[in-house]
Design brief:
Helices cover 41% and strands 24% of the residues. It is an alpha/beta fold. The protein has one domain. A three-stranded parallel β-sheet has the order 2-1-3, with helices on both faces. The longest helix has 12 residues.
Length: 70
């Protein structure tokens, strides 16, 4: 059974990092749904087994306080 994972990432980033992370996770068998970094509530609503944040300080810092409350 695949791990159900919600990924918070800056999908507008010009580097394409979020897409590469999603592709890599899927290759390893994860069922990944990607949300913008501001979409924590939507990510939680999809009832994932795990929440992950991809990006630098600008992506992780705003998500961290909310993730600590989950």
């Amino acid at each position: 059974m695949a791990l159900k994972l919600a990924l918070l990432a800056n999908q507008e980033s010009g580097s394409g990092g979020a897409e590469r992370v999603v592709d890599a996770l899927r290759r390893h068998g994860a069922e990944v749904t990607c949300f913008d970094v501001g979409g924590l509530e939507e990510a939680i609503a999809c009832d994932p087994e795990r929440l992950a944040v991809a990006g630098g300080d600008g992506s992780i810092a705003p998500a961290l306080p909310a993730l600590l409350e989950v």
